# Entry
Amino acid sequence: MFNLLQLDLVSLRLLVLAAKTQNLTQAATSAHMSVSAASKRLAELERVTHCSLFTRVARGLQLTPAGRGLAEHARTILDAAEQMAHDATDYANGVRGHVRLFANTSAVIQFLPQDLAAFLAANPQVRIELEEVLSDRAIHAVEKGQAEIGIFADNVAAPGLHIHPYRHDRLVVLVPQGHVLAQRASVALAETLDFDYVALNQGSSLLRRINDAAASTGKRLKVRIQVSSFDGICRMIEAGLGIGILPLGSVHPGLLETKLRAIPLEGQWASRTLYVGVADTSRLSPEAANLFSYLSNLEG
# Structure
C-alpha cells in the first residue's frame, strides 16, 4: 500500500486532465506546466501507486484499468478539496455553518424559493446547499448522511427518518386551451385515461402516484412522451402532444392565461403532502436544526 502523503493535488489534477484528453501535451498545457514536468509527475504517480496508469501510444495516452479507476478517485478528491476551499472562504467571511438540503422537484419549484429566502433573510450567516432530486433520492441521501434534511412526497416510504408535514399541494390536469376537457370545472382521473399523456420519467413519486391511481380505476396511463421536468411537460402539452398532471403551483401563471387550462382533479388522491425529514434530530448541527424547525412549521 502506498503512502497517501506522497500524493499532491497538482499531480492528481494532472492525472484527471490526462485521463480526459488522453494527450500529454494537452494535459500539460491545461495544467500550465511543461511536457517534461508533466511526464515526470505522471511517472512519479505511477511509482508511488505501484500502478501503470497509461499506455503510451502513437497518438497520445491510453488509460489502463488502474488509470481509469484512480482518475475517478482523483476527481472525487479534487471536488472535496474545492468544496473545502469554498467552505473555508465562507467561514472566513462570517458564515457560521452549512446545511445540505435535498428536495424533490415539487418542493423546489413551488415552495422553497420563498421559504428559503425568508429563512436566509433572518439567518444571513447560514449557507444552504440545495440539490433537486427525486423523492427516493432525498430520503436515501438523508439516511446515508449525504444530506442533513430531505423533502419528499407522501407516497414514498421513509421509515428510518424523523418526518414532519412541510407543505400541501393539489394536482390538476393540464390540457391545451382547445382540448375537449378544457371547459370542465373538474374531472375524475378515469375520464382522462383515454387520452395520451405527457409524464415525468420513471422513478418520480408523481408518476408513481398517477399510475397507482390509474390502476385503481382498472385502466392504465397511456404515456406518449416522458420528460425530466415540469417545464418540459408544459411545453409538450402546449405543443398538443398530450395532457398531463402536475401540481397547480408548478405551472407558470402566464401559461394558464394564454396556452393551457388547469382542471382540478376529483378525489382525495390528488391532494398531496410534502414531508421534511431528518435522520436524527439530536445529531443535527445548530443551523440544520434551526432550518428543520422552520420548515416543519410552515404547513399550510
In short: Residues 136 and 157 are 8 Å apart (CA to CA).
